[in-house]
Design goal:
Order of helices and strands: HEHEEHHEHEHHEEHH
CATH class of the largest domain: Alpha Beta
Shape: globular
Strand content: 5-15%
Distance between the termini: 34 Å
CATH architecture of the largest domain: 3-Layer(aba) Sandwich
Helix content: 25-40%
Bound molecules: uracil
CATH topology of the largest domain: Uracil-DNA Glycosylase, subunit E
Radius of gyration: 18 Å
Strand order of the largest sheet: 1-6-7-5-3-4-2
Number of domains: 2
């Protein structure tokens, strides 16, 4: 191992120690047929997009634009993914969302409790209900949308309006059951008029999203639409370009697809969503 690699690995290990992670495990081979790798110890790799603005930077930053990761030598085999992304924002105290250091993993209930009657951003005064998330706390698949709409704000549940019905239909098409997955959003409160969440709102709320994903530890995170892709993967490239690709995301994988609301506005694009859902199915089935 050369000095450069040693330095990167040390930075990453310190980073994970700060998060309270003390051990690493070898993941089972995935659909893409990759050999197991030490996920948590993998240093950041070159990619085309900037990292999430909110990300702490304990490890060296990415500067190159090559789309494929450079393998570690000699122990770590190459990972057949489009890019390797820095893990999500850690749970340290960037915002007052940070939990006290705990000995074991957090539960969704603890995260919800910590969120409380949230007033951390300017969405609070106009929301009716905080839409925390819904579904199986042990899901293999987590969907991340943008933010609650009017129906979700009324009912306190994600994706229960028209976009939610399309999401349900897509899941059914590929044999996924809603009760088996977990669904949440980048922001937990409805932006007025269903506008796109603003940067300060995303910064205030996204630590809770990262903690939810960390608590669930799904095999795959599916980002629905550009705000989710930006928040989870830090990718600003157009979603129609990068959809359907698998990315490494900490110790899990992530895939981007178009938002169901976009398909409702552009029915001809339903093919994109359907094909990406087929990829999700194949991934989960280990094809
Ligand atoms: N759109 C979203 O992004 N999230 C929801 O919960 C509903 C619609």
């Amino acid at each position: 191992m050369n000095n450069e690699t040693r330095k990167e690995l040390t930075a990453w290990l310190e980073f994970y120690q700060e998060l309270g992670i003390e051990g690493f495990y070898r993941r089972k081979p995935t659909t893409t047929g990759s050999a197991p790798i030490l996920e948590a110890a993998r240093p950041p790799q070159p990619m085309a997009a900037d990292p999430p603005k909110h990300a702490l930077s304990p490890a060296p930053t990415r500067t190159a634009t090559a789309p494929t990761p450079t393998p570690l030598k000699p122990a770590v085999p190459p990972v057949p993914v489009t890019a390797v992304i820095r893990p999500p924002m850690p749970v340290v105290s960037l915002f007052d969302a940070a939990p006290a250091r705990r000995s074991g993993p957090e539960t969704l209930e603890q995260i919800r409790q910590d969120l409380g009657d949230c007033r951390r951003c300017k969405l609070a005064p106009t929301r009716k209900t905080i839409v925390f998330g819904d579904g199986n706390p042990h899901a293999e698949l987590v969907f991340v949308g943008e933010g609650p709409g009017a129906d979700e704000d009324e009912q306190g549940l994600p994706f229960v309006g028209r976009a939610g019905k399309l999401l349900n239909r897509m899941m059914e098409t590929v044999g996924l059951k809603r009760q088996d997955v977990y669904i949440c959003n980048v922001v937990k409160c409805r932006p007025p008029g269903n506008r796109t969440p603003e940067t300060d709102e995303v910064e205030a709320c996204s630590p809770f999203l990262y903690r939810q994903i960390e608590a669930i530890k799904p095999r795959l995170v599916c980002c629905l639409g550009a705000p989710a892709v930006r928040t989870v993967l830090g990718i600003k490239e157009g979603i129609t370009k990068i959809h359907g690709r698998f990315y490494d995301f900490g110790s899990t994988r992530a895939l981007a697809t178009v938002h169901p609301a976009y398909v409702l506005r552009n029915p001809r694009e339903e093919k994109i969503l359907r094909e990406d859902f087929e990829k999700i199915r194949d991934f989960l089935q280990g094809a």
